[in-house]
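lol forgot to send this yesterday, sorry. C-alpha cells for the thing we talked abt
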C-alpha cells in the first residue's frame, strides 16, 4: 500500500475534515516541545469520538501503519515526535469531562481534557485534581497519563499514577480494554503499568481520576539564599526535620531574572536562589508546621523569608515559578530543558557540580526544580546560530544525566525518556531489566506500531529532519 493510498483509505473511514495532509497543516505536528527533533508525518487524524480513535488504530494495525497519539505536544523529550511514514492521532478534540462525582470524589474525562479544566469542573464541589505540571494550563490528561507527569505538589500528593483509578484504552492490537475502575478495584495494578508507558501500548480513551478536597489552609513561604547550595541543603534539612510540605521548589539567579522579566515576579533582591515552600492541611496543623518550618529555615542563614499574606500573593509567587521554563527564552535564543533525579541528601552537591560543569562548558544553566523529591530541571542556555553551541549543550545535558545515575538517581523524574534520553537507559538498567521492558511492550504491541522508536533502546527512532542531529553525529542514536 503506497503512502497516498494509505492516507486515502483512512480518510474513507472517517467523517470529512478528520484527516490533515497538506504540508501547512502537518507543520504544527512535526515536533513536540523538544524542537531540535522534527519529522513530517504521513498524515494527521483529528478524531472527535472514541469510536473514531478505535477505527484509526485498528486500521493502522491491519495496514501496518505506525501511529503516534498526541495531545497538546508539550512533551520535552521527543515523546510525541511523529513517524515519517506514519500518522499522528491528535486527541485534543476528545475534550469532554464526562462525569464529576463529588460523593465518590472522582472525575471521568476524555484524553484531550486540559489538566486545569479538571480542577475547574471540580471546584464547585470543594474538590480539585492534584497533579500540577508547569504546563498544566495547556497539557492534556492523556499526555499526563502517558508520561506519568508530576508537578510542584508531587512531593506530598504523588505523580499522575497516584491519581488514576481507571483507564479505558485501545491497545495497538485494536483491542479495547478497561483497567481499574474504582477505589476498591482488586487485582493487578494495570493502571499503574499503563501510566508512564510513553505511548508504547496504545491510546487512552477515557480516564477516571481521583479528586481531593481543597485544603482548609495554605501557608506559602518564599525564602532567599546567598548560594544555590545553601538552598539545596535547606531542602534536605526540612525533610529531615520530619515535615512533609505540599511543595518545595528552588529557582536559581538566572531563573529568578527570567521570571522577573516575564511576569514581574516580586522575588527577594540580591539572592542567588529562592526556595518556595508550601504547607497545606487543617488550619491548626499548618500553623504548627509553619512554626517548625521557620525554625528549621532559620538555621540555614537565609537572606530573606517572606510569607504570602493572601491568595493573590500566593498566586504571584507560583506564577513566577510556573512561568520559569518559558521565561528563560528572554535570556537566550535557545535552551534545553533537562530532567533528572538525585537523592535529596545530595541535592547541594548536585547543584555545585552542575555549576562546575556549566563553567567548563562555557554555557549558562538556569536551575528550576522540584527540590522536595530531588527532581532537577536544569535549563541549558545556548545560541543555535553559533557553531558548536548545540553540540556543547547536548554534551552538558548528557553529563548531568550521567551524574544523576552515578548519584543513585534517575534520568527522568517526569518528562519521560522519549527520543532524547533512550541512549542513557542502558546506563541505568541492566540487559535483563531492559529485556523485560521490551517483552512487556511486545505483549501490548507485537508489531511495534504504537509510538515506535521511543523510550526503549531497540527500534528505529523516527528521525527525519534535515541534516544530522548532534546525538546522531555522536552515534548515540541512528536512523538505521
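and heres what i got for the seq, position by position
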Amino acid at each position: 500500500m503506497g503512502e497516498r493510498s494509505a492516507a486515502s483509505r483512512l480518510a474513507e473511514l472517517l467523517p470529512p475534515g478528520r484527516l490533515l495532509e497538506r504540508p501547512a497543516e502537518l507543520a504544527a505536528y512535526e515536533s513536540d516541545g523538544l524542537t531540535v527533533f522534527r519529522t513530517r508525518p504521513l498524515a494527521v487524524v483529528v478524531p472527535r469520538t472514541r469510536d473514531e480513535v478505535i477505527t484509526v488504530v485498528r486500521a493502522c494495525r491491519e495496514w501496518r501503519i505506525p501511529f503516534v497519539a498526541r495531545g497538546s505536544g508539550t512533551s520535552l523529550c521527543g515523546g510525541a515526535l511523529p513517524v515519517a511514514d506514519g500518522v499522528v492521532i491528535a486527541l485534543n478534540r476528545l475534550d469532554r469531562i464526562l462525569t464529576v462525582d463529588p460523593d465518590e470524589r472522582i472525575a471521568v474525562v476524555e484524553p484531550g481534557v486540559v489538566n486545569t479544566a479538571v480542577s475547574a469542573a471540580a471546584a464547585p464541589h470543594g474538590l480539585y485534581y492534584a497533579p500540577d505540571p508547569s504546563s498544566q494550563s495547556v497539557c492534556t490528561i492523556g499526555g499526563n497519563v502517558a508520561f506519568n507527569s508530576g508537578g510542584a505538589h508531587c512531593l506530598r500528593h504523588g505523580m499522575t499514577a497516584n491519581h488514576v483509578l481507571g483507564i479505558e484504552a485501545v491497545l495497538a492490537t485494536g483491542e479495547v480494554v478497561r483497567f481499574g475502575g474504582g477505589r476498591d478495584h482488586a487485582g493487578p495494578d494495570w493502571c499503574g503499568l499503563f501510566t508512564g508507558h510513553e505511548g508504547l501500548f496504545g491510546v487512552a480513551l477515557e480516564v477516571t481520576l481521583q479528586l481531593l478536597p481543597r485544603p482548609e489552609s495554605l501557608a506559602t513561604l518564599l525564602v532567599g539564599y546567598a548560594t544555590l547550595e545553601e538552598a539545596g541543603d535547606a531542602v534536605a534539612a526540612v525533610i529531615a526535620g520530619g515535615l512533609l510540605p505540599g511543595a518545595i521548589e528552588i529557582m536559581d539567579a538566572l531563573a529568578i531574572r527570567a521570571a522577573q522579566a516575564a511576569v514581574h515576579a516580586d522575588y527577594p533582591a540580591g539572592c542567588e536562589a529562592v526556595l518556595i515552600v508550601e504547607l497545606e492541611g487543617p488550619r491548626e496543623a499548618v500553623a504548627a508546621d509553619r512554626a517548625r518550618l521557620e525554625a528549621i529555615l532559620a538555621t540555614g542563614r537565609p537572606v530573606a523569608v517572606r510569607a504570602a499574606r493572601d491568595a493573590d500573593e500566593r498566586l504571584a509567587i507560583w506564577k513566577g515559578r510556573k512561568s520559569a521554563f518559558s521565561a528563560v527564552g528572554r535570556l537566550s535564543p535557545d535552551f534545553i530543558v533537562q530532567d533528572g533525579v538525585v537523592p535529596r541528601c545530595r541535592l547541594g552537591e548536585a547543584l555545585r557540580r552542575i555549576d562546575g560543569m556549566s563553567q567548563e562548558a562555557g554555557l549558562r544553566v538556569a536551575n528550576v526544580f522540584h527540590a522536595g523529591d530531588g527532581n532537577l530541571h536544569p535549563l541549558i542556555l545556548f545560541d543555535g546560530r553559533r557553531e558548536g553551541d548545540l553540540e556543547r549543550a547536548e554534551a552538558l545535558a548528557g553529563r548531568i544525566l550521567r551524574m544523576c545515575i552515578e548519584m543513585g538517581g534517575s534520568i527522568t523524574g517526569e518528562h519521560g525518556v522519549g527520543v532524547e534520553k533512550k541512549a542513557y537507559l542502558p546506563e541505568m538498567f541492566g540487559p535483563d531489566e531492559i529485556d523485560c521492558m521490551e517483552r512487556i511492550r511486545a505483549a501490548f504491541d507485537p508489531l511495534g506500531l504504537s509510538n515506535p522508536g521511543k523510550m526503549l533502546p531497540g527500534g528505529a527512532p523516527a528521525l527525519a529532519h534535515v541534516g544530522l542531529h548532534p546525538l546522531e553525529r555522536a552515534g548515540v542514536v541512528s536512523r538505521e
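The chain is about 35% helix and 20% strand. anyway ping me if u want another try
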